[in-house]
Design a protein that fits this description.
222 residues, five-stranded parallel beta sheet, four-stranded antiparallel beta sheet, elongated
Length: 222
Amino acid sequence: MRLLIVEDEKRLALSLAKGLTAEGYAVDVVHDGREGLHRAGEGGYDLVVLDIMLPGLNGYRVCAALRAAGHDVPILMLTAKDGEYDEAEGLDTGADDYLTKPFSYVVLVARVKALLRRRGTGAGASPVRMLGDLKVDTAARRVFLGEDEVTLTAKEFAVLEQLVVRAGEVVSKSEILEHVWDFAYDGDPNIVEVYVSALRRKLRAELIRTVRGAGYRLEARP
């Protein structure tokens, strides 16, 4: 999943980005409201962490502009303020959740996961994806092959997640790069092949098919 952090406190923003990257997310960071609106408006993000007090445009205006333009990306608002009025205003402009500084990093991660789960599965639906004897729990970030649990690194899980949520479809290398690695990644795009090879070794080679010139497809064994 690809996240955008819009936060002008650079130390906090980089700390959050580092932690969320370690959780397996691709994270981009900007420090200005106008830039945040531009980035979020381009689409491609699964969630936006949005501070309220920002230079350029404040978080309320960024959120309202995104909703007015029809963007439904989940928005988690952050603020140093504390009060019912601020929370109500944030939610009235279209934010999905609200967190007051200082906050626990563990709580932030829990809120992020809950919003992503709600977006990915719909209210009341299961976050568990099944494909033959492969079971991927996108909420608990656990993978089972038959009765055996398979241990994956954060990046391996993130690549598998992109494939399993679109099981049976071809997912291009560029789409995987966009959602698993961050916006600034300028390394070798063949890094995707490295992680696909690792998944094939840990799961079963035939689960992930290469579609020449197009990408990869996750499919159940006949």
